[in-house]
Amino acid sequence: MTEVSATTPRCAVLVGNYTSGKTSVLEAMLHAAGAVERHGTVGQKNTLGDHSREARERQMSVEPNFARAEFLGDAWSLIDCPGSVELMHDAKTCLMAADVAVVVAEPEPEKAVTLAPLFKFLDDHKIPHMLFVNKIDKAGTSARAMMEALQAVSTRPLVLRQVPIREGEAVTGYVDLVSERAYRYVDGKPSELIQMPEEMKDREGEARQALLESLADFDDALLEELLEDVVPPPQEIYREIRKDLQEDLIVPVLLGAAEKENGIVRLWKALRHETPGPAAGARRLGVLETAGVGEGDELAALVVKTFHQAHTGKLNIARIWQGRIKDGLTVGGQRLSGIYQLMGGEQRKVGEAGAGDLVALARLESLATGDVISAKGKVEATLPAWPQPAAPVYVLAVQPEKREDEVKVTAAIAKLMEEDPSYAMRHDEDSGQMLLMGQGEIHLQLAVERLKNRYNVAVTSSPPQTAYRETIRKPTKHHTRFKRQTGGHGQFADIHVEVRPQARGEGFSFASSIVGGAVPKQFIPAVEHGVREALQRGPLGFPVVDVAVNLVDGQYHSVDSSDQAFKTAGRIAMTEALPDCDAVLLEPIEQVAISVPQSFTNKVHSLIAGRRGQILGFEAKPGWDGWDEVKAFMPGSEIADLIIELRSLTLGVGFFTHAFDHLQELSGKEAERVVQRREPVT
Ligand SMILES: Nc1nc2c(ncn2[C@@H]2O[C@H](COP(=O)(O)OP(=O)(O)OP(=O)(O)O)[C@@H](O)[C@H]2O)c(=O)[nH]1
Ligand SMILES: [Mg+2]
Q: Atom 30 of ligand 1 has which residue's CA nearest to it?
């Protein structure tokens, strides 16, 4: 591991769409900086990142990877975030530690749209970011088409800083548009300076002009120079780029191929020269105000990720924005004794950490992601712009394989939720099921695997039950006499009830029009109790709603009548009466709002139609340039796996929210299927 340098450490966070190559870029950066000896690859499962079992098995990042490196004397923390949209919450909270974000993208123009939600997040939070277009080694497309597609999803102007040099199909190097120098890629090593190829000159001149014009939009002096045909010196251009990046006015774009380490030293140098120090990030986040300290040396730190580890307990990853943190600090009633630097799966104990550093704080139980720490310990307030987890879009009913594990499962899921608040858990009263909710199939599979691997509890999972109801369409009158003679006291209750349907949503109501004490007052609540019990499961097998019951007459016996007898009579009366009332199934209808880039809106219309939905309308999504929001009513049963189809239709970027709206009659084949699937009473 490299030693920490004297300069203030900075933090770069690698983000981008799924499999764009972030973990590969991390590996290449670490190798180029000499922080790891061997350049591992994701395919060979020997990268520093993705060391967890779940990540290696999938060959994808399933949690952020943390590493440190020193490049040309500067200390850096690097965070490589998972790219899957289902794991986006981790990326968002880790971005709260960033001095700069490096968006790792792919060159194919059609993939650009997948970056839209991420760009929006970066833009909304004003996080300085650059774009590293990876996999340039297999790029068939022109840089121009690629830039156009990427620009369409970024509100900030993208500024291309390199043009690729091609030999036939292959990209063999690049021209740096600021220094106007040409380089040839050398795999696994820094690029070699070469003579600028003659045929590149026109293209280079054009691209350089575009770069200067973008910068001139934010600087009058530069604009004047351009108008007067004065060529600005490279130093001035670098200065402008640095200033504009730091103010989040532009997005510099660099090219490369992580697996071959092409373009990586260039990326490092851009980061080195242009990334602001932690004071800027602290201002952007308002972290000092939240910590209640002024600018200076007083401690202000922010927890951006929490891990629960089976043996070592809780680990909180914190960025120190200002001041120093030392062992011995009391946080939430506990004494801090364990500050670690992280290098992939390796942890190195250090007694303290200073401004700019990113460290793991061990065994502080009361601390969690989003917490701000000052010298007084954990601060009550949270950051104003702290990212909120997305509402769950996918649900599974989970059941421990061993019944006695129920408490263990609940406790373990609570830990998973602390690590990633975009999980949720709920006990469904209706079905008695424990529902685990999250951001998609992978997200929930991961939870199930982690329960097993880390907490040693095995659960089975199944799709959740839909909360069907039933109601009646016809009124009826019913007479029940309940009479039993068993030794000593007998039981006697006699009632006449009228049952009638109510309007949708009115629920259940019970009344009594008994006169003259045919059923004594004290027994009437027992009748209602019995009626309610019977309504828990109607003739179709589901809870009965929107029914009015009136107790109109009855008889009692001075010795044998009791609460129990009248309750039983109430239940029997309903069980016998309901089959005469033309029962009908009710299915929950939810209002959904589906958000997609406009090019996918038509697909969403057919998606809704295919799921028995009813479109209510669509409009441009506020705050989302080029996106629509389609509103529709959709049956609850169709929402369970909606996200899977929606993502597969929209390259993964579509998302939705939903809320119960009303119950609606369901008949025909669909209703028959539901009734048949209903488990028999046991
Ligand atoms: N051709 C080519 N393939 C690459 C390059 N960099 C990464 N890959 C491949 O792209 C795939 C994904 O690489 P990762 O580094 O795991 O991508 P990631 O962005 O970390 O993926 P997630 O974290 O799962 O989102 C792997 O199969 C890599 O081998 C590159 O420069 N060129
Ligand atoms: Mg990765």
A: 135
Q: Which residues surround ligand 2, an ion (CB under 5 A)?
A: 22-23, 61
3-class DSSP assignment, residue 85: helix
Q: Is the pLDDT of residue 63 over 60?
A: yes
* Mutational pocket test of ligand 1: of 259, 261, 264, 651, the residue with most ligand atoms within 8 Å of the beta carbon: 259
187 CB less than 6 Å from ligand 1? no
Distances from the Cα of 616 to the Cαs of 348, 586, 665, in angstroms? 57, 21, 19
- Summarised one tens digit per residue, pLDDT across range 508-557 is 999 999 988 899 999 999 999 999 999 999 999 999 999 999 999 999 99
Cα of 49 from ligand 2 centre, angstroms: 7
Q: Is the C-beta atom of 17 inside 6 A of ligand 1?
A: no
Pocket lining: 40 vs ligand 1, CB cutoff 6 Å: no
- DSSP codes of every residue in 279-313: HHHHHHHTHHHHHT--SSSS-EEEEEEEEEETTTE
20: Cβ below 6 Å to ligand 1?
yes
What is the residue with the minimal CA distance to atom 11 of ligand 1? 19
> HSE (CB half, 13 Å, CA atoms) of 209?
9
Q: What count of residues does the chain have?
A: 682
Non-local CB neighbours of 506 within 8 Å, separated by 6+ positions = 546, 548
To the nearest 10°, report the CA torsion of 268, 273, 279, 283: -90
Q: Ligand 1: which residue has its CA nearest to atom 31? A: 257
> What are 304-329's pLDDT values in tens digits?
999 998 777 899 999 999 999 999 99
Q: Please check the confidence at residue 336 and state whether its pLDDT lies above 60.
A: yes
Using a 6 Å cutoff on CB, does residue 19 contact ligand 1? yes
117 Cβ below 6 A of ligand 1? no
- The 8-class DSSP code of residue 5 comes to P
431 CA distance to ligand 2 centroid (A)?
38
Q: Among 113-122, 322-331, 641-650, 671-680, which is the least confidently predicted range?
A: 671-680
pLDDT value for 679: 73
* Ligand 1 pocket member 47 (CB < 6 A): no
Domains and CATH numbers, the chain: 10-276 (3.40.50.300), 288-378 (2.40.30.10), 394-462 (3.30.70.870), 470-581 (3.30.230.10), 586-677 (3.30.70.240)
Residue type, 320: I
Helix (H) or strand (E) holding 373: strand 372-374
Work out the average pLDDT over 611-637.
96
